[in-house]
Amino acid sequence: MSTDTSFAGPKDWPDWSASYRSKAKTLMIWEYVDPAQEPPLTVAMRAVYNDDYRRYEFYLEAWKEYMYGIGTLETWVRNHVIRQHREVNCQEECSSGITT
Q1: Other beta carbons within 10 Å of 81
Q2: Is the separation of the CB atoms in 75 and 88 below 8 Å?
Q3: 12 near 5, Cβ under 8 Å?
Q4: C-alpha–C-alpha distance, residues 4 and 57, integer Å
């Protein structure tokens, strides 16, 4: 098996794949790049991931509540300010589209 194996198409796959595997094993990284394996997560890495994901879910829910509040307030403004008043008095500071 040549270490100079190049992959140009499907016919090259067996030789190239064997060279790739051999090189990765020589570099002692095969367990990290083996396409048949899930990347190994240490217990600490999994704990960090789980913590980060819980934090993401928390902030996502907070953002959804915030956006719901913004939308509700915008609807209220649209329903409680007459159109002519919005067009005259809400120019630059109403960048969210309330003037339409």
Answers
A1: 13
A2: no
A3: yes
A4: 47
